[in-house]
Amino acid sequence: MQGVATLSQSESRRQEVEREILDVIISEGKIDPSRITSDATLESLEVQSMDTVLILMAIEEKFGVYVPIDGQIADSKNLTSFVQSVADHILRPHD
User: Fold this and answer.
1) What are the C-alpha distances in Å from 55 to residues 8, 10, 12, 48?
2) CA 80, CA 61: separation in Å to the nearest integer?
């Protein structure tokens, strides 16, 4: 049973991190929350590349982790995959 509780805590933490990332995107990107959909892209939300840099800087500050704009994050096709990729990076153990 202990493994189930750990998994649930891990899932809960992930959902919390993803919510916080989305909050930063909305705030820093000055996006109307009603425009947020699972298939929205940063482009469709009119987030410019400089805004993306500012968003990632705010996320780095909030979580105390450097978030590179490459690999899985750069390849994100929509907002959902972008948030998930950033969360993956934040939740991954760092040295």
Assistant:
1) 29, 25, 23, 10
2) 21
Under a CB-based contact definition with an 8 Å cutoff, are residues 45 and 39 in contact? no
Give the global pTM: 0.86
Q: Does domain 2-91 have CATH number 3.40.630.40?
A: no
For the chain, domain boundaries: 2-91
| Burial (Cβ within 10 Å: 0-12, 13-18, ≥19) of residue 25 | buried
The per-residue pLDDT for range 4-50, each reduced to its tens digit, is 556 688 889 999 999 999 999 999 999 999 999 988 999 999 999 89
Q: What's the CA gap between 76 and 74, in Å, rounded? A: 6
Cα(40)–Cα(25) distance, integer angstroms: 12
